[in-house]
Amino acid sequence: MNMRLSYGMGFILLFIPCSLLVAFTHYPALKALLNSFWNNGSSFRPSRFVGLDNYETLLEDDKLMQVLINSFIYAIGTVPLAIALAIGMALLVNSKLPATGLMRLSFFLPTMLPMVAVANIWLFFYAPGIGLASQLLNAVGLPSINFLGSTDTSLVSMMVVAVWKEAGLFMIFYLAALQSIPTNLKDAARLEGAGSVRIFFTVVMPLLRPTTIFVAVNALINAFRLVDHIVVMTRGGPSNSSSLLLYYIYEVTFGFRDFAYGATLTVLMVVILGILAAFQFWVLDRKAHYQ
Amino acid sequence: MTGGLNRIAFTTLAFVLAAVWGLPFLYSIWTAFHPEKYSANFVWNAPLTLSNFAEAWQAAPFALYFLNTVILITTVLVANLILCTLVAYAFVRYRFRWAGFLFSLVMVQLLISPEILIVENYLTLSTIGLTDTIIGIALPYLTSAFGIFLLRQTFLTVPKSLDEAAQIEGAGAWRILWTVYVPLARPVYLAYGLVSISFHWNNFLWPLIVTNSPEVRPVTVGLSVFATVESGIEWSLVNAATLMTTAPLIIAFLIFQRQFVANFMRAGIK
């Protein structure tokens, strides 16, 4: 046990996996940083060192500003809503109501679907005129809304899709946490005369806290790195109203072929995720120890 | 009395939420199984049809896309299982200089995942000439920090006495890995496998960037191309294609529902 690792054995165990990891995680992250100090080369004009020029562009980029605001609203809007719904779903599915199996299926199914399929389903659901959303609005006498075609509603529509897709997954984690809560705690509270609502907020909620931190961190990171639905449904539009940071990176790099600015935006993305990680470390260290 | 009323309110709420949640999907099913003219038009006795599925299946090479996805997820899964096992074994069973530092380097991938490094990874792929290949899609995902972490946690719970007993019996490092550690981690391999398969079946942006030709497209990319270009936005076809491409996952889920949920829970908690 805990033997010294010989060079030969170490090489066999670690060389291939670690080289792959370095080649596709550490190297590209550092390469993005380096490339952000150079401009785009072409066949007749090699790229040259431009210092902080790309970062100046970044600071003056109004479109980026809007994209960051969108990303912020998207994260702040979807994460708490998905968590609240997930807790509600877990409570329902965990209760002794009839047909909980069917409910669990309904809540969890969107999680199983690829985001592209989810996007197609919602594209149709939102479609002006024939979509179910329009039809329901018309049925109650309201005018139909062009959900994806209007700058006022496109981002919110994307957020609804994200919550629909993710809440079911989080429900599973809460379900696991709920089932691990000892029933005698709730019985004791009930003997003391606490009602269901009180028991939920004073007994159950505190015990769900580690799960909430875990889910929130994952949801937050996911809010930054899953943009498949933007690609399929709105392409960031109309006029960037639904564009998120990763989608903007994709658009700048592979749409406008501006790899240097794409690298600069990647650096920004890594910095934002780094801040989130530091925050996570700080919060987890303080609050989740009794797990 | 209020208890009864509460229960009724609670039940109603539950059913309403579950029904609302199911609506978009049910609407998609309705449209896929009915002729075009009933696609947004609810008549209880509208004729059912499978022709949308047949037409969508003919209109794009979905069989090929399925094959590509299967090749992709198999490659990634096999590589992950082998490589993550090796790394986790090294971290758990041996001590070596820089082990802690190396482990934190590995964990970096949990945060800075391949999804956000699309720009530079694409440049790397085009330098080595692997754009528009299935192996190119798979490369950034062949080692997984999540898998290493999960297996390391599991291997740590293997009793040292088992390992020592095997050594006394004269078993070498490989035999001990194969006969002691791997069997004890079987449920974790299953859980990791399910999570990995559903992640890579669903992955879209990176394959979209890497692939150009239908010969290497996975199902997700094929579906998006079909939905936006090839179908002429005929909704019944789009919905049929959407259901068709997700059917294997849904069927698998319905069959393995219990294990699936349990394994997702396990993978999340560890």
From TrEMBL, chain A:
Localization in the cell: Cell membrane
Domain ABC transmembrane type-1: 68-277
Pfam family, one: BPD_transp_1
Membrane topology summary: Multi-pass membrane protein
TM spans (from-to): 72-93, 105-127, 155-178, 199-221, 259-284
GO biological process, one term: transmembrane transport
InterPro entries: MetI-like, MetI-like_sf, UgpAE/MalFG_permease
Main subcellular localisation: membrane
Keywords from the UniProt entry: Cell membrane, Membrane, Transmembrane, Transmembrane helix, Transport
Superkingdom in the source lineage: Bacteria
Family statement: Belongs to the binding-protein-dependent transport system permease family.
Protein name: ABC transporter permease subunit
Automatic annotation (TrEMBL), chain B:
InterPro entries xrefs: MetI-like, MetI-like_sf
GO cellular component, one term: plasma membrane
Membrane topology category: Multi-pass membrane protein
Pfam families tied to this protein: BPD_transp_1
Superkingdom, taxonomy of origin: Bacteria
CDD domains: TM_PBP2
SUPFAM superfamilies: MetI-like
Keywords assigned by UniProt, alphabetized: Cell membrane, Membrane, Transmembrane, Transmembrane helix, Transport
Keyword Hydrolase: no
Assigned protein family: Belongs to the binding-protein-dependent transport system permease family.
Database matches in PANTHER family: ABC TRANSPORTER PERMEASE PROTEIN MG189-RELATED-RELATED, LACTOSE TRANSPORT SYSTEM PERMEASE PROTEIN LACG
Name of the protein in question: ABC transporter permease subunit
Annotated organism of origin: Kangsaoukella pontilimi
